[in-house]
Amino acid sequence: MATRERIVEAAAELLATGGREAVSTRAVSAAAGVQAPTIYRLFGDKQGLLDAVAGNGIAEYLHSKTVHDPDPDPVADLRRGWDLHVGFGLAHPALYALVFGEPRPGAESPAERQSAAVLAGIIRRVAEAGRLRVSEERAAHLVHSTGRGITLTLIGMAPEQRDPALSEFARESVITTITTDGPGRTEAGTGPVATAVTLRALLPELTVLTDAERGLLREWLDRVAVGGGAAPRAS
After folding, report:
1. Which CATH superfamily is domain 45-227 in?
2. What residues are annotated to bind DNA (predicted)?
3. Which end of the chain has less Cβ packing within 10 Å, N or C?
4. What's the rounded Cα separation, in Å, for the pair 130 and 202?
5. What is the pLDDT of residue 177?
6. Is-contact 179 75, C-beta < 8 A?
7. C-alpha–C-alpha distance, residues 27 and 200, integer Å
């Protein structure tokens, strides 16, 4: 483990100071004081090493999102999570770009999956509170994609050119789109969706139903959440 950690730390330092291109097997070997075959034996290939660097670096970020006690208002937690995400990206641009800058459909890194799981937990709390007007999956995708886009945009700007309000505008636009003002306070046309999303989040607590019944109810609720409560057209 000492050798593995030394290699990961050396690669992380090269990434932070020189970007992804600086993380070559030769450079990492020299910085960590090991032979190249050791890197391949421990990580498989360069991508395996980069995934290890990403996972090690993202752990600090995820800890900062989960170390606090949950806010009584889950939407406040969503705001805090957004700000932490953007702040982390600006503080660690090379690491952020490594984790979130190159999507790999169907082959997400462990760091991406961990980050997605934390976001899903926050979104689930919003749904359980009756504050979500779209499906959990749609809400998580919108928050993640918009937050990632804003962060990468800000990273690409010179520090003196960054508009500090840009992230706040994007954050509030997304929150307005996916949440309601409060439990039971939905706009016209969104009531069935918000109700379905809330009940969907609370399904595990409906122990009076069998697994099969909960599965069927889940299918119906998902259909309402995605379809907006509209009746299907007759063929």
Report:
1. Tetracycline Repressor, domain 2 (1.10.357.10)
2. 24-43
3. C
4. 10
5. 93
6. yes
7. 50
Cα separation, 84 vs 194, whole angstroms: 27
Terminal CA-CA length for the chain: 63
Residue 179 φ then ψ, to 5°: -120, 160
What are the distances in angstroms from CA 148 to CA 36, 53, 190, 208, 218?
34, 19, 27, 40, 30
pTM of the predicted model as reported, rounded to 2 decimal places: 0.72
CATH top class, domain 1-44? mainly alpha
CA distance 84 to 171: 12
The distance from CA 183 to its chain's CA centroid, rounded to whole angstroms, is 25
Domain positions in the chain:
1-44, 45-227
Burial of 150 by CB count in 10 Å (0-12 exposed, 13-18 middle, 19+ buried)? buried
Beta carbons within 10 angstroms of residue 20's beta carbon: 17
- With beta carbons less than 8 A apart as the criterion, state whether 144 and 132 touch: no
Locate all alpha helices (DSSP H) within the chain, ordered by sequence. Answer: 2-18, 25-32, 36-43, 46-66, 74-91, 93-100, 110-128, 136-155, 164-178, 191-201, 211-227
Tokens for 191, please give them.
């009531």
pLDDT score of 187 more than 60: no
Residue 184's pLDDT band (boundaries 50, 70, 90)? very low
Over its C-alpha atoms, the chain yields an Rg (Å, rounded) of 21
- Which of the 8 DSSP states describes residue 190? T
Q: Is 140 within 8 Å of 120 (Cβ atoms)? A: yes
